[in-house]
## 1
Amino acid sequence: MSGATTSMRCLETPRHFRVMVDGIRHKQISGRIPSGSHSMNSSMGSLDNFSAAAAWAPMGSFLSAMCGAQFAYAYELFQRSMRQFGPPSYHLDTVCQDGKHVPVTMTVVAETPFCRLLRFSVGDGHGVRRMLCAPLAGHRAVVVRDAIESMLLDADVYVTDWIDARDVPREAGHFGLADCVLLLEQFMTLLDPARLDVVAICQATIPCIAAVSRLASGDAPEVRALVLMGGPLDARLHPTRLGDIAAMMPLPVFLAHCTGAVPHEYRGAGRIVYPGFLQLPTLACGQPERLSAMVFAALQGPWPGSRAQADLRHAAVAGYVAMMDMPVEFVLDTMRIVFREHLLPRGSWYVGGMPVDPAAMRTTRLLTVEGQLDTITGAGQTHAAQTLCRGLERRLCTQVTVPGCDHYGLFSGPVWRSRVYPMLRSWLNAPA
């Protein structure tokens, strides 16, 4: 598994994108632009160009005031402030089942340079397999902790635990969107698609529907159920602010001012990444009230509730702000395929020389879920799968829009626990 994944190439990034990335890498390594992700570049180009980059970023005025040594200092300050939260953790030692605290076992099922497949189970396991595909969009997989905890009541939960790109050696090669699709397809095959329910969140909906489609187009059995939640499958519908940025930011500006090379003290030294340092302000601007509410709740300490509840609030903030560096080729693929050329809904996306054809599904049960108040993924973008999967009988297809639910409420917090998961659980456990 690991060897096969390591040998994958970036199949989706056009040559002119790769040339820009390689050009930036050469400049950074040769010293004309010092390493970027963790010290960023001290020669950011002209102030006019830097201001242009800032104009496209949600944190505009902050970026326009930062350059050179100031920028590097701001990054280090950010990193130090994150250390107070400690290393991200799932905090899933036990779950409450039938009024009792039952131990949770976490094991590594498969490990590749860019992702680990983790299995969470209680007792001897349930026998039911559910693959929870966490988004590769900056957050670490711990952001879906609430979803794992809830789903453990009925199934063994397999989670895609993405690796911070700064810790992936350059020798592991590129990791584009096509590589992600092929990796998820490998994981699904490993878990036996015919016994598997797949739940994909946010960005993960795109490679997941592609992986499931590839299985359906070949000789492998189809997955039993596919749940797509809050993902931009057709970003043309009701575009959001973040979607507009991904669609319109000039690529040379993005590469010059929003990417950098991992410095020598990390395993991924020299890899060009979109750093977590820049991702958090962008995401926070999408839902600023959410981060404020989480931090305020954590600052209250043990009150209200128990010490354990306070620890969970603290862990929620830690998981939200613990952003990963992302491979730049993956970000470029996402910008191009999802937000600019809309290859999936247009039927023009090829992975591994094979068309991505959701209409090939015949037996998979399909559920699409959107949040009414989602400001990150626009209305209708996820439900678009209902049209894309036109080969499915309508009795197999369900779509739900959750009232009063924002993007993160689709997989965490009180809305998830009180409204989203009860609906999801009922649907997953219903007979086909």
## 2
Amino acid sequence: MESLLEKTSDTSNLQYTFVMLAILLLESTTLLIGNGTHDQKGLEDFPYGSSVTYLCDPGYILIGSATIHCLSSGVWDGPVPKFAGCPPPFIQNGGHSSQQAAVFTRGMVVTYTCDSGYNLTGEKTIYCTDLGTWSFPAPRCEGMLFRIVHCGSRNAIYTMGKSSLEELKTCLRQLPKLRSLQIFQNY
């Protein structure tokens, strides 16, 4: 706090009045953010009434108010905004075209694939929107299911259905002299 000496006088009596003037200063460290900047970079202190406006780094989305104001109470009128991209696009039993990316920014496209033995269900390609969300829900990699029609002879037919891939492998091991295999998939 700083004090201001205010001198007042009248004809009969000379008086001095001390007035305490509270100058509220906020440190700039409260304004530091990642993935963006603000328009008051050179300032170290922010007096009452000052404002700060934030801008995102390319590819990031501002979440919150772009401008905050210093109140007479010595606090800002809102939280410092955040800058975000999309959350990492996880997929179990598969991967995506940007596995090595640390940040998924606005406009970034991700294409999914599934591990061997799994089928992709949902959108194969999605992108990060201006709102920091993906254009579609992440797809799923589901295990291929087979319904065993006949197992134990030299010919076997499998169709998509209720049996698991492990059951199919077990059946195939029982057919060491299998000459041909027909697999019908229902889409």
## 3
Amino acid sequence: MSTKTHYKLTHKTKLLLIGLGMDLVGYASYAVLGVGEWFDVVWAPLAAYVFYRLYPGTEGKVGSLITFAEEALPMTDIIPTFTLMWFYTFVIKKKKNS
């Protein structure tokens, strides 16, 4: 008999994990010297697209523009835009609506 426990991830948890992963990839571009800014040329539009797909509506559109700018501009990759949006969506906005 198997005693494995299976966990079902909620939509909220999936968004957090994907967001943390996306933020980590954005940070990782600075781990390899000389690659950071060149990587951002490809990463900025990809990150903006993923952001737009994860968070639909006006907030997703605005957030994807901010994500694109944050990834494209030098020295701004430290801002965890995906994690901040998750926090806004599931903590701040939830408090406003309750």
